[in-house]
Amino acid sequence: MINCYKYAILFLIFTGLQSCSKDDTDLQVPENYTFERNGQSTVSFDGQTTRLLMAEELISSLSDPDRSLEELLEMFRNSDPNLSPFTNDNLNDATKSIKSKIANSIDYFNSNTAESSSIKNDFENWIQAQTMEVFPSWNTLAQEGSPGQIDDGSSTRYINALGLEYNQIIAKSMIGALMLDQIVNNYLSPSLLDSNNNRSNNNNGVLVEAKTYTQMEHYWDEAYGYLFGRSLNQSQPLDDLGSADGFLNNYLSKVDNDPDFNGKALNIFNAFKKGRAAIVEGNYDERDEQVRFLRNEISEIIAIRAVYYLKKSSQLLNSSSNNQGAIFHGLSEAYGFIYSLRFTRDEASNSPIFNMEEVTELLAQLIGQNNGLWNVQSSTLDNLAQQIADKFDFTVAEAAE
Question: In terms of residue numbers, what domain contains 151?
Fold first, then answer.
């Protein structure tokens, strides 16, 4: 009798534990980012991989003074079928472009076309300035107020009259205006995920014509593609995190390697898997929970790296070496990450954590009144770092390592 009672209690405990954990185990989340229907993969983000490749070649070409303005702008626009600026013929034949997706999210720019155009123009103006200001001075030593080359101790950098590297500004600003904006404000937006009849179609397994996926599944995958679209194994992207591309993927790796933020990459990968699994199972509350998590975590990468470069440059200014080339390089990266703050997401207000007016003010503080970075003060950089960190859930000390 005692044994029967004991077994009954054990049975109730066991089944009770199963019941308590049922909500957590109902969602079938795969180990890798692998989703199939009828034995065929439903994951597709070719367009994102194409744009990452275009961006990589554009940034690389900005360091080639033999490149013409026409070629560089065409890499950005991809609008003239008579021009073939890319070394990769597949990119020349592609119908995609970088420009079309810059500042083009449904949440931030669908009804804000004036600011979207202004941001696109910023990129084209930077590209033009590289060819008109920096390329002609490629073999000239930079001086205060004059563009040219400057050594940072390990590499030669090419700066404008204010000490800024346009290629670094463009690359880091693109992380915000293209990758971040498309992920958190476009493809992960319920406004897009649930647009038209996407929710009912997803519930009923209605696929995009001639494709293996529903429209909602595809939108989610496109967000994933802007972060992991150049990974060698796109279903296991953490294996080559940091080396897959030089954009958001690379800086997620750098942040994850900081002990204060270790685990961020795995958490982001798991959230992408969980949200995609929730879409497959029609669990939209869980999907939206993962959206909120991803928006916060990915937005934070931008701010962490902005603070990192500001503090690193401040430390160099206060060191005995006072390596101007390294300082200018770090602050050019900081400039781009500060610009990218415009595309971050505050879930409480559904708006940028820094709007464009605030970003413009931060950049004005960085550049100063006279000769730009040539006269920058460490106190200015420390103040900027603090202003940024104050709006996020991390400290300056944590980001500065």
Answer: 42-399
